[in-house]
Write a structure and sequence with these properties.
Elements: H1 9-13, H2 18-23, E1 31-32, H3 45-58, H4 72-79, E2 96-99, H5 101-113, E3 119-124, H6 128-136, E4 140-147, E5 150-151, H7 153-163, E6 167-170, H8 184-196, E7 200-204, H9 220-223, E8 228-233, E9 245-248, H10 251-265, H11 270-280, H12 283-310, E10 325-329, H13 335-346, E11 348-349, E12 351-352, E13 365-369, H14 375-391
Parallel strand pairs: 1-11, 3-4, 3-6, 6-7, 7-8
Antiparallel strand pairs: 2-9, 4-5, 8-9, 10-13, 12-13
């Protein structure tokens, strides 16, 4: 029986997620450079356990239905982050909602903003899963070339004049996949362009706190709060399995998005969110983040050193200053074929650059992650990967 006729136009637009296409079915023996999440050994389990134990003993009401905006204690903590993202004071709680990860924020924003045919501009390359969320609602995705400082401002202005886009999607810190940061000047230009061309910016910033040395820059949200949706996440800093993110923006939009969330999931897991609030508001969180940043910096150095020493200078990359990703160019190579050969011949998994391009470009690139594997395994697999790439 043919089922397509029962599916909605939206369901028929969906495709298998890009990341799952390259991460699914890998064995434990595979050298996995695909997954942008913390290593299990880096998770703050010892810090979380007493918090969970205490909540289990003293606050059983947290196991009931919560409210669609999210836990009050976590909302208060998120409000206090205003100065850390460049605001002069707290974020008003009416301008914040908790979501099911940053991806949950993207799906809710897409459902609330996008009509079929609306244009969404995005850095090219960019994170494909978020772009798929907008495409699911019928958006036309148009890529903008970018460099080490962010989107090309002249091209952004040209496309705004030509296409009258509704949304610009950017990842300003340690961008996925390139690992770059949008410069302060480009952030200001984005804010000015958004005002000039009636554009809404979706600022996806889950890697903001994963800096190695230099602290993050002020958010675009702090420069144009009436024109920006700011998405954050605890998936990278606490645990991805908690699926806890947040969205801040103009209160009129957030109110509508809360209604969408209420009609989609009814309520959020208050118990988990209260535990995150207690941990994030404690001195232990700062200690954890310092250790986690040091761990990521060490991992990044292991991978970069291996590529420099063992690849025969056949891999071109710029060492990132934070985050989880290393973007590599392989001059004269086809990234898709490199991905296949690495998996079939060396049992190493990477993602080809074309998977991240809105326009099918980045043909000679691959994206590597260094955050997931245990350190000793990373050392061995990084050398194996570098030697394989050097032999191609």
């Amino acid at each position: 029986m043919i089922m397509n006729r029962f599916l909605s136009a939206q369901a028929n637009r969906l495709r298998p997620t890009t990341i799952a296409r390259y991460t699914g079915g890998l064995s434990a023996e595979t050298g996995n450079f695909t997954s942008g999440q913390p290593s299990p050994e880096a998770l703050p389990l010892d810090d979380l356990k007493p918090i969970f134990d205490s909540l289990l003993e003293t606050e059983p009401a947290l196991f009931g239905y919560g409210v669609p905006r999210g836990d009050s204690e976590l909302l208060a903590y998120l409000s206090s982050l205003g100065p850390s993202i460049g605001l002069s004071g707290p974020i008003p709680e009416r301008q914040i909602m908790i979501t099911q990860g940053a991806m949950g924020a993207a799906h809710i924003a897409a459902a609330g903003l996008i009509d079929p045919g609306d244009v969404v501009l995005a850095e090219d390359p960019s994170y494909p899963e978020t772009l798929d969320a907008f495409a699911k609602s019928g958006a036309r995705i148009v890529g903008i070339s970018s460099d080490a400082d962010g989107v090309n401002p002249k091209e952004l202005e040209r496309l705004c004049r030509l296409l009258s886009p509704k949304v610009l999607y950017v990842i300003p810190h340690f961008q996925n996949p390139r690992g770059t940061c949008t410069s302060l000047e480009r952030r200001r230009l984005i804010a000015e362009t958004a005002r000039r061309y009636d554009l809404l910016v979706f600022e996806d910033d889950p890697y903001r706190d994963l800096y190695f040395d230099e602290k993050p820059l002020p958010s675009i949200f702090s420069m144009a709060p009436e024109r920006t949706l700011f998405a954050g996440s605890f998936s990278k800093t606490v645990a991805p399995g908690f699926r806890c993110g947040w969205l801040a923006g103009p209160d009129e939009l957030i109110e509508r998005f809360v209604n969408i969330q209420a009609q989609t999931v009814v309520a959020l897991p208050t118990f988990i969110h209260r535990a995150i609030a207690r941990f994030a508001g404690s001195p232990q969180f700062a200690v954890h983040m310092d250790a986690f940043r040091s761990d990521l910096a060490r991992r990044c150095r292991i991978l970069c050193d291996a590529l420099t020493e063992w690849s025969g200078r056949r891999v071109i990359f710029s060492e990132p200053k934070g985050g989880m990703f290393l973007w590599c160019r392989l001059p004269g190579q086809d990234g898709v074929q490199v991905q296949k050969r690495l998996l079939e011949q060396f049992n190493l998994a990477v993602i080809p650059g074309t998977a991240f391009s809105c326009q099918g470009e980045c043909l000679d690139c691959i994206r590597l992650t260094y955050s997931r594997q245990p350190i000793e395994r990373l050392k061995a697999d990084a050398k194996k990967l570098a030697q394989a790439l050097g032999a191609f």
